[in-house]
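Hello support,

Our group uses your service weekly, and this is the first time we've seen a run hang past the timeout. The protein is L-ascorbate peroxidase. I'm not sure whether the cause is the sequence or the server load. Input pasted verbatim:
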Amino acid sequence: MAMASARSIVFSGALLCKSLPAVTARLSIAAAPHRRLSSSGLSLRAACSRRIRTFAMSGSGAAAVESSQRIASQLDQLVGAREAIKEVITKMHCNPILIRLGWHDAGTYDKNISEWPKCGGANGSLRFSIELEHGANAGLINALKLLNPVKEKFTAVSYADLFQLASATAIEMAGGPRIPMRYGRVDTVGPEQCPKEGNLPSAGPPNPSEHLRKVFHRMGLDDKDIVALSGAHTLGRSRPERSGWGKKETKYTKDGPGAPGGQSWTVEWLKFDNSYFKDIKEKRDEDLLVLPTDAVLFEDPGFKEHAELYAKDQDAFFKDYAQAHAKLSELGAKFDPPQGIRIDESTS
Ligand code: HEM
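Update from on-call engineer: The timeout came from a worker crash unrelated to the input. Re-ran successfully.
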């Protein structure tokens, strides 16, 4: 997360768009949240230029002003992109595939490789065909197609940010927790920078708990993160024609919403809650999916303590999920500015 910094520059203001609700956006390129200034009611640009002037007058120079303006414009684009993503999600009910896209971009990370972008992670490399064609990514081309028009409109938002923004927005729109996200991720530039195939987990390995630990510990994530993040399967479906897992259709998926078919983990597979943990524990409904890597969460003692807690306490799940998701979204990410950019929102 953001590092403590001696200097704090803060912009905040309201961005008003004709077709959108008034959005109060706050940009912080500093680490100390308690030092943020609030000026809701001012336009974003007015608030920004006032702060920029203040900063310039303090003698910090033209370069700092230019950089502040660039960041303010990036924030503007991020807020616009988020609204455009919300429209796509509302129309297409595509929350699950957007979450899977963000996860598969980030989840290639290897903490043992220090060089960027060789280490993999949330760097937008999943936009290249060579990586989209990895077996684990079957079907994710459809998620990219949904986001490409947003990217064309908001060109300053990197693919890496776009994928993570779409994923966090999809969680929140499905009723999930607010995730403490940072933006400003730098993109890889060519397919030669894509990670090798095989870094993402398999659903049916010979020893599921050993496999999950090997893959997620390589990313720098722990047992609690594994269980919390698996809870994202409360949303979405598995399709045999993509991953090879799940039924062609069930009574819960045959009519959509969105493209019909597949097998979901939960009955209400567009609602983010803790039903995944209840359902995979009970295994009572043949129309609901339990992968070997889901089942092991209630079998392995190190995973079970968290899974049991989440099955009975949704608040605990939401709290741990939000933290684990934020961590996942930053794996292998290079930020510009280095502290990242935060967006806070309150509709008025
Ligand atoms: C723990 C290891 C994991 C395994 C083995 C696994 C495996 C799978 C498989 C086989 C599918 C079905 C894909 C398809 O047929 O289209 C799937 C879907 C999905 N996964 Fe995972 N996954 C894992 C972890 C995660 C994590 C960490 C997240 C997010 C934080 C996640 C989010 C999703 C979502 C939202 C879907 C539904 C996609 C859709 O409906 O299009 N998964 N996963």
